[in-house]
Amino acid sequence: MTSPTPDALLGPADVRELAAALGVRPTKQRGQNFVIDANTVRRIVRTAGVRPDDTVVEVGPGLGSLTLALLEAADRVTAVEIDDVLAAALPATVAARMPARAGRFALVHSDAMHVTELPGPAPTALVANLPYNVAVPVLLHMLESFPSIERTLVMVQSEVADRLAAAPGSKVYGVPSVKANWYAEVKRAGAIGRNVFWPAPNVDSGLVSLVRRAEPPKTTASRREVFAVVDAAFAQRRKTLRAALAGWAGSAAAAEAALVAAGVSPQARGESLTVEEFARIAENAQHAEKKEPGQQ
């Protein structure tokens, strides 16, 4: 692998100069906060365990701070960018700062929520600084759409990181926690200070590591059926599962029958259940009178 030039990564002055040249101002609408610290992006790549044979997909590359650091370490990088101006500019930035690696870079100009295939080899890793307003749906969509992704490291709002990595029984354990755990072993992997971003956000950020399970929890229910139970259980999280699942099951009595058949107390609440227990409830849907199709 050809070594990049020492100044290949973007510093604060580089980021502002690029943004000014493009007429770009980070927008709150898209949750844009550009990373301006080279040490931080190298730390992210190191924490992600990016290997020389990895094909990495990055969502929301922005001006390319993390993209360049990923290109230092991976075999290939494919970036998915929704912003017209940023998507048009990134290939030129890569070519100018890492000409020897430019052939290993691909840009997909699209909304990540609509991407179901990528050019080149199947991605083995996902590394991204995700805007907090779309972080969870984008993460779940990518994990579902690209089963070849073995390792993921995302930088998200600290509160979102806590939710994703929460264990059953935690106050912040909920839909993101369970759904992420369907795909992967999830854990917090560090904190990121506000001063490494431009503009500096009003919230702290955290790193979340997801290592894909060899296979999803063993169940005869489909992912969609399991997720429908999860959505119903947390839609009214203060209620017991008997009450919270009444709409999903058709009645409170049918919900209780499904729960008992699954070996789960009807008086329990969703925040106490593992993903495997949700799967068992979904398996026992025959005890329910009807089901509402769940969203991802």
TrEMBL record:
Signal peptide: none annotated. Its main location: cytoplasm. GO terms for cellular component: cytosol. GO terms for molecular function: 16S rRNA (adenine(1518)-N(6)/adenine(1519)-N(6))-dimethyltransferase activity; RNA binding. CDD domains: AdoMet_MTases. S-adenosyl-L-methionine binds at residues 33, 35, 60, 81, 111, 129. SUPFAM superfamilies: S-adenosyl-L-methionine-dependent methyltransferases. This is Ribosomal RNA small subunit methyltransferase A. It comes from Streptomyces griseoflavus Tu4000. The gene is rsmA.
